[in-house]
Task: structure prediction
Amino acid sequence: MPGADLQVGVAQLRSGVDVLTNLDTIERLVAAAAGAGCRLVAFPENATQLAPEAIRLRDAEPLDGGQMARVCAVARAHNVWVLLGSFAEQGPDATHTYNTSVLVGPTGDIAAVYRKIHLFDVDVAPDTSMRESASVAAGPPEVVLATVDGWRVGLSICYDLRFPELYRALSAAGAEVLFVPAAFTFRTGAAHWHPLLRARAIENQCYVVAPAQVGAHYGNRESFGHALIVSPWGDIVAEVDGGGETWAQAKLSRRRVDEVRAAIPALRHRRM
Result:
């Protein structure tokens, strides 16, 4: 029934250049998670392709292209919600895509679309110097929510995690679950992945569902992994602790959300 507990699968991928191979893996993991009782299966950023910018620009597609059509078909075939953490959507010009997250319903229809607003332009170290904005256009600065079987869910992508005001806006708009699909670099993930995700869960009293890329992709690009789910109390309730393309699952408890928010009514105590 609407608002009841929600069984969620959180996937870990090592996406590469070949889109069809990545889609095959997505299909396999959806089938496995659905067979284990998951109602929603979440995939990381760059799920259908993690590739150098020239290849990504070449293979970018519109929302009604073949990549999304296949994801919609697998959601419909297994009667589950699928979060495609992101794919390269054709952008505003020939040199830029959008980094776009799409939530697909069990009927195969698109329920929500979020285009990443914070772009990863950093110089952490010589091997972690990136300029996402060189080939990705920022989406409009808007809060995107949807309803999944009675749960209000908020969409975000990877580097957004470092901007707590986005998640405060999502929780203020009614979010109970925060999606953070990511391809965190190994260096930044080892230092910040777990504490940032737990902080966003605790301060917003929401579940956080964070599917992740893992391992080597191309060149020196390496992702941290550790796809996980965090409770509103900050407990890690599911985690992929190895380097494979697999998934973990947890039950999101309506009672637990209510208990945490009643015990520490911080969301009602805010004074802005």
Notes: The first strand starts at residue 6 and ends at 13. The CA atoms of residues 180 and 190 lie 16 Å apart. The helical segments are 19-35, 53-59, 66-78, 164-172, 186-204, 254-263, 266-269.
